[in-house]
Amino acid sequence: MTPDDLMLSLRPDALTEDSHRLRRERDLAAAFAARRPRSPLPARLLKAGLGLAAAAAVGVPYVVSSSPATAPPSVASPGGSAGVAAVPAPAETVDARSFLLAGAETLAKTPAASARYWFSSTRTYDPVKGGGVLAVTDEVWSSPRGGRLVTGKDAEYLPARPGAALPEEKSLDHGPMLLKTAIGGALVSDADVAALPSGQAALDRWLRDAYQGRGEDLPAEAAAEARAETYPAFVLGAARFLLDSPATPATRAAVLRLLAAQPGLTMQQGVTDPAGRSGVQIGLAGSPVQLTVDPTGAKLLAFTYTGPDVPEKRAGTSVRAAQVSGRKVAILSSGWVDTLGARP
Amino acid sequence: MGVDQPQQRFTELYDRHYRGVLGYALLRAERQAAEDVAGETFLIAWRRLREVPDPALPWLLGVARNLLRKQRDSGLRGQALATRLADLAPPPEDDVAERVAQREAALAALAELGDQDVEALVLASWYGLTPAEAARVAGCSAKAFAVRLHRARRRLSHALDRAALTLEERR
């Protein structure tokens, strides 16, 4: 007999069943005779943390590893985003909505897939002193049973800086290591992300819980930072993460629909991401994150972070990835693969 | 006339969770008082139906806990949770001597735990709440709850092992 078996054997099921039978009619009648359900109170926005707004802007600032052996390198760093070449006047919000909803329609028709490893390749462009950027590619193969992290690949200064030191390429194969990412107050693994709701309303509820810090026991700071930004900005930050994650196409469609429902959206067409691909930039008033989405609206190409610098912070196995002002991250490729080293 | 959505939702909520809420209230109050607390809990849920989250159970248990705290006369006069559990426990399904003895040993082990530890075991085993959900009901941090639960399970597990060993030696 285990402790849980014992406790279950002590549950007074017969008594509660009997009471349910006897009290049900009376309790339901008493409720329905009382006042009708009232509307919820206006959202209680926590204003105390507003000073943290800039740091919280990306909305997914933490990566937590369950294995103390290897803190994840900055491969998983959030932040960043799309290079925006053209700067036409912001379009009407309604256009951004229609565009995102069209993308959701396309995604919703995409069949779900799954394989052993989730692969993601990103190229990060960080501004350097004196002008120009340092571009570096990182690759991740992740699965609960182990994976590979490649950092510092194809590093180069743009424009070139002959003789300047460049980061070295490093490759690390690791055993079972559960990487979790914080979305507000919720800590999620790849499996959790793949199991997120696929309906807009359910996803909204899940994200609101995460926004309000109702989630797992992660650093309280992460939840507090999430609450320091507005909910629409939090949704944009979460979209930045989820649109390039193992979330199912149905969940990503729900992300686009939910994003489309947020007030304050902006859209710029005819932009080019740092990897030279044409796209549409989606932003939100008051958020330092912008997404660059492909012209169909269904695929995240890149994202930009224009808030202030935030240094990396480590506590135990938790890593709060650094944020670099002006960082742009292009998602070169992502998807499921069966073998380590394979690319979709 | 269409289906009344709030009434339908509330009825489902009641049928799904009344037993669980009452079970929790019974830990702190005699049957009549516990049933009143459960009824009041659902009355509050009806008035605030749009605020009831999904999953609803941790929220409902939290409401019940607050009502129980305010209650002046539970009829139990500060009885320890372990003692209350032993009183509430249905009789064993069989009267095999070993099972009865093991159960007695387990109840004795439970009696050595503090109320907070016993509550942690109840929230985890009866309701399958996650540490974060259970912590909200218990009014502590998820970390504190996890520590509490781990400690309680370990102690109870040791007590059950000891009981099993003793029984084998008696054969």
What key attributes describe this structure?
heterodimer, A: 344 residues, alpha+beta, 9-stranded antiparallel beta sheet, 5-stranded antiparallel beta sheet, 9 helices, 14 strands, globular, B: 171 residues, mainly alpha, disordered C terminus
What does this structure look like?
The complex is a heterodimer of chains A (344) and B (171). Helices cover 28% and strands 27% of the residues of chain A. With 344 residues, chain A is of the alpha+beta class. Chain A has a nine-stranded antiparallel β-sheet, covered by helices on one side. In chain A, helix 4 packs antiparallel against helix 9 (249-260). The model of chain A is unreliable at 39-94 (pLDDT under 50). Chain B contains eight helices and no strands. Helices cover 73% and strands 0% of the residues of chain B. Chain B is an all-alpha fold. The longest helix of chain B has 29 residues, at 142-170. The chains are: A alpha+beta (344), B mainly alpha (171). At the A-B interface, helix 1 and helix 2 of A face helix 1, helix 2, helix 4, helix 5 and helix 6 of B.
